[in-house]
User: What shape does this take?
Amino acid sequence: MMRSRKAQASFFDGILFLMVVVFSVAMIFVTLNSYTVSQDRALRSAYFMNYLQSTAKALYFIDVNTLGDVETYCADLGGANSERYCKTLASNNDRFDRFTLSDGSSIDTFDCPSLTDYSNLITVADLLKKDVSPIVGGIILDESFTTDSATGTFLDDHYGHSNQRGRTALRCSMKEIMKPFTFSGYHYMSEVTRSTEIAGAAILDVAIPPAYIANDLGYASDFMYLYRPGEGTGLEYAPFLETGSGPPLEAFDCAKIDSNQLLVLRSPFKIIVGALDSSNSRNPRGGFESLNLVLRLCLWPSE
Amino acid sequence: MHKKGFIGPIGDDIPSLFPIIAGIFIFLISIGFIQSQINARNEYIDLRDDVLQVSYVATEKGYMSRVPDLASDFDLKCSLVKEIALKRQLNFTMILKPFCGPVNVNQFFAVNPALGSYPARVCSSFTRHEDMDSVGSGDIEFGDENTVIMSFPMATDCGDGKRGLAFISVAGWR
Assistant: This one.
């Protein structure tokens, strides 16, 4: 009886040893599962950030007249079968990328062919700067501008009363540059912000409206603003999206994107403008001052 | 001395030897497998890091002239990247694909450097400088399935004094 119990005890020891080994191996495999995951994420982020940095740099060299053949997402996808980009709206037969004006004519919100007329060496960044510039030679061309205004001026394809299609150039170039990400399930947004220093420490970026250029209608207020010549500021909220399911206008901002994988690149630039009289912010007083603006590019995966 | 049924100090424990041997066997196999996995992952991380470092050099500026010339940006970068890759024992291929307009996604992911009227430039660990202008798609060297490819936007010459959109792709392998 004693020997039998001893054999059972040693067998139990063997089984226990096997269980300990299996448990240890399982723990090692669990640890292995997360091994290099953080490094992988860091490298992926580094790659994406270098992509965004290259994008910001390339915008300073790409001539806008090479973007004249850029088409809408709908055309890129071959026409009619994209629910997202080619959807016909039942109310007025408009598409998301085309809008019918009150006089019956239609405008394309992706009006890239209008860029063909610009001459060589006018780059995307050149047009962008001119678009957001409020003052020419000391004369204020944009009535919305004041020195204490956080918004500066509109990114509205206009420099005073002349057509300077900075917004269109940025939209068309970003659409093509970000195409690999767009078709890989990522959202992007590009906007111009005015950088304001608060109490000598914090930096506040305030978006210049309508500044949002993105590849997703759910985030793209750029699709909501359309230009109507001669009407007020020229900016009008597209009525067919007013009742849409997208977030309200205030939600469109890189800083408000709710994603724990959001990557943001800030590329600062200056615009030298005529200085304004401190007593009356609309009057030029001679001399120059600079506007500190930021081109902000955001990238995040669709959830 | 020997009692009936007693077959020795080891023999009496023969049944317990099976799970012990199985445990040791499983443990050793697992350790071997895990070690190979760790090595593979470390090598892949190192490879991606090296390709990223090379890409930082390649994308230093937002513009890269591609006219076949020893003084063109592309050729200067090619020489520089070759030196860095050699130090890191990295095989690489760098392709500058000029689109000069809309990006064809199919061509973006294709290796073939011939893009209509805008020929691509190729530089690799194996390509001699004087051969780069006449290289065909079949001559481009690529590694195995562990090749890391990274692409970045860039501006380049598009003829008639224009500068348009291009992509520079850097592929690296051991």
Notes: Chain B touches chain A through 54 residues (CB under 8 Å). DSSP finds three helices and six strands in chain B.
